Amino acid sequence: MGNVGLLYVGAVLFINGLMLIGVIPGKSAAILNFFVGGMQVVFPTIILIQADNDPGIILGAAGLYLFGFTYLYVGILQLTGLSGEGLGWFSLFVSVCAVVIGFIQLTLDDPVFAVIWWIWAVLWFLFFLLLGLNMDSLTLTTGWFTILISHLTGTIPAFVLLLGRYESNTTLALTLAALGVLALAIAVTIGRRSSAAAESEASTTAPIAT
To answer: What's the structural domain count of the chain?
Structure first.
């Protein structure tokens, strides 16, 4: 179940990234957030019922709830028009949890998913800065980073897991980490260039005082 959920994490992150850069309206993106958020709450509940107190299974289910509540929160905000500060501070909580879960993955000899969790920690920290601290200048940076890592940390690993070909070693983890850093660098560059272009356009179209 977790592997299927991961596949749709890639999908909803991609849609939310497109929403942040202005390609998809918020109310349109809200629908998929409700679908995936609901799934990410129902699935871990079923997993917990069947876990038989297995700590590893319970840990995995707890991580799914972090995503499920985020997407349901996003969907509600987009439909109601409420401010996003609450989601922003919840995103800080998710970011800290993701860092911890990443280290736990290392103790479980799974460095690839440790890196995936740390990339998610960076993304949710950007959500915190954008929504919790109202740093609107990071909107495009956050949107592009969301798009770039959606398939890197969601869709592709999910398909590999579903095909039964998942491997985890230091080389793959370092490669994934490098791709994550590259994605962040690209997102920051696009965000800064877009902001600079907007400021330049605003200055050239501003009325001349008389």
So the answer is: 1
| Tokens found for residue 10 | 């890639």
Residues 6+ apart with CB under 8 A from 9: 36, 40, 67, 150, 153, 154, 158
Q: Let me know if residue 21 belongs to a domain.
A: yes
Rg (CA), the chain: 18
pTM over 0.85: yes
Nearest-CA neighbor of 6 among 74, 60, 80? 60
Q: What are phi and psi of 52, to 5 degrees?
A: 55, 40
Report the 10 Å Cβ neighbour count for 12.
26
Q: Which residue carries 């949710």 as its tokens?
A: 124
201 in any annotated domain: no
Domain holding 187: CATH number? 1.25.40.600
pLDDT at residue number 207: 58
Residue 209 lies in a domain: no
> What is the Cα–Cα distance from 92 to 97, expressed in whole angstroms?
9
Is 210 among the domain residues? no
What pLDDT is stored for residue 209 in this prediction? 47
Q: Report pLDDT digits (tens) over 47-93.
A: 888 888 888 778 878 888 999 999 999 999 999 999 999 999 999 99
Here the contacts of 203-210 (C-beta below 8 Å, separation 24 or greater) are none
Pick out the chain residues at pLDDT < 50.
209-210
